[in-house]
Design goal:
Layout: H1 5-8, H2 54-67, E1 71-75, H3 78-86, E2 94-98, H4 103-115, E3 119-123, E4 138-144, H5 156-165, E5 169-173, H6 178-181, E6 191-195, E7 209-213, H7 216-229, H8 235-246, H9 248-267, E8 272-276, H10 286-292, E9 299-304, H11 307-316, E10 321-322, E11 332-334, H12 346-351, E12 358-362, H13 368-379
Parallel strand pairs: 2-3, 2-4, 4-5, 5-6, 10-11
Antiparallel strand pairs: 1-7, 6-7, 8-9, 9-12, 11-12
Helix pairs in contact: 2-8, 3-4, 11-13
This protein binds pyridoxal-5'-phosphate.
Residues 77-79, 102, 104-105, 144, 148, 173, 175, 195, 197-198, 207, 209 line the site of pyridoxal-5'-phosphate.
């Protein structure tokens, strides 16, 4: 019988029964840059750590297994993963992207990728509304679901079908749900991106990024680019992320249960104008989420009545940290306007609904009552 998702967070199937490395239960950190060879023309399988390192390879196999891909690539950050993926595009190519994306991805597309001659056209992909942008030059559709920070939900299977009918790749940034809750490749996507800094490592202590694919042609290109450009994740950081993934299932279950309680509590606060959490049945993406994911995650976006209240909340929180990032065990509150989305043009930001009264919570694994008590203190 196939191993279940929570088991796969801890064990690589191919390792079962294996007692390599003195039976070490925690896969060792191979802190080495290079590898000696027994003789000319022979190799242990490893030559130089820019190409591959055993600890990084082990982590990559775990992530590939969790996402259902043929291969995964561990790199130094989520943005390094997005940047690495853009290497597969050529000058003249076009990409259709969701207009509500992580701010760093938009910055990369609009400043770096554009200079390479690759054009990114933005639209609201969650409305399945992108066919009019397809030209003979279009090569890929790039989405997040749910989006950061407005939590728009895109039907992955439907988007994959449209993309494939036009010979386009579908790339899904799956950071917000992690492979524990959602597997885009199994729904038809060709490439999955993760900021491993977030839920996968889970402890707000390391940066990492992943690309996972089930396409052999993309796998081959990316192996070549990693070897050539050198953004592969370091051995110690690979070990930290692997260690984090062991508790992915328990962390996400607990964080999600906290998020439900907090979202419901926020909905009843007179000074909170709007609560956007895809686990609430009033969320427009609720039914799609139920179909394509196994959970709703622990990210909540909410809008308060005025900017003064935003300032009050951010100045008063103590247990909850006012910080960028998400997906860790500690609860964080983020202000997209000046943090994650500061470099997104104001017009786009406001069009997407990211007003200066919008806050984003990444709910951690503290006791929900303590979190609600703190929110009560800072919002009232
Ligand atoms: C954080 C984030 C990234 C970028 O990852 P880093 O590890 O910070 O470089 C990309 N996509 C999403 C959805 C993110 O939340």
């Amino acid at each position: 019988m196939a191993r279940k998702n929570d088991t796969l967070c801890l064990h690589l199937e191919e390792d079962e029964g294996d007692c390599r490395f003195f039976g070490a239960v925690s896969f060792p950190i191979f802190q080495t840059a290079t590898y000696s060879h027994p003789a000319l023309g022979q190799s242990t399988g490893f030559d130089y750590s820019r190409l591959q390192n055993p600890t990084r390879e082990h982590l990559e196999k775990i992530v590939a297994q969790l996402e259902g891909g043929i291969d995964a690539f561990a790199v130094s950050s989520g943005m390094a993963a997005v940047a690495l993926l853009t290497e597969i595009f050529q000058p003249g190519d076009e990409i259709i992207a969701d207009s509500d994306l992580y701010g760093g991805s938009i910055r990369l597309f609009d400043n770096v990728l554009k200079n390479k001659g690759v054009k990114v056209c933005y639209t609201e992909c969650y409305k399945s509304d992108f066919k009019h942008l397809i030209t003979p030059k279009t090569k890929a559709v790039y989405i997040e679901t749910p989006t950061n920070p407005m939590m728009n939900v895109t039907d992955i299977a439907k988007t994959a079908e449209t993309a494939h009918n036009h010979n386009l790749l579908l790339v899904v940034d799956n950071t917000f749900l992690s492979p524990y809750f959602q597997n885009p490749l199994k729904l038809g996507a060709d490439v999955v991106i993760h900021s491993g800094t977030k839920f996968l490592s889970g402890h707000n202590d390391t940066l990492a990024g992943f690309i996972v694919t089930n396409r052999a042609d993309i796998q081959e290109k990316l192996r070549f680019f990693i070897k050539t450009t050198g953004s592969g994740l370091a051995p110690f950081d690979s070990w930290l992320v692997e260690r984090g993934i062991k508790t992915l299932a328990v962390r996400m279950d607990k964080a999600q249960s906290n998020a439900f309680k907090i979202a419901q509590w926020l909905e009843n606060q007179p000074k909170v104008r709007r609560v956007i959490y895809p686990g609430l049945p009033n969320h427009p993406g609720y039914e799609i989420m139920k179909r394509q994911a196994r959970g709703f995650g622990s990210m909540i976006t909410f809008e308060v009545e005025n900017k003064a209240l935003v300032e009050q909340i951010l100045g008063k929180v103590r247990l909850i940290k006012f910080a960028e990032s998400l997906g860790g065990v500690e609860t964080l509150i983020t202000y997209p306007t000046t943090q994650t989305h500061a470099d997104v043009p104001e017009e786009t930001r406001l069009k997407n609904g990211i007003t200066d009264c919008v806050l984003r919570l990444s709910v951690g694994i503290e006791n929900a009552e303590d979190l609600i008590e703190e929110l009560q203190n800072v919002i009232s």
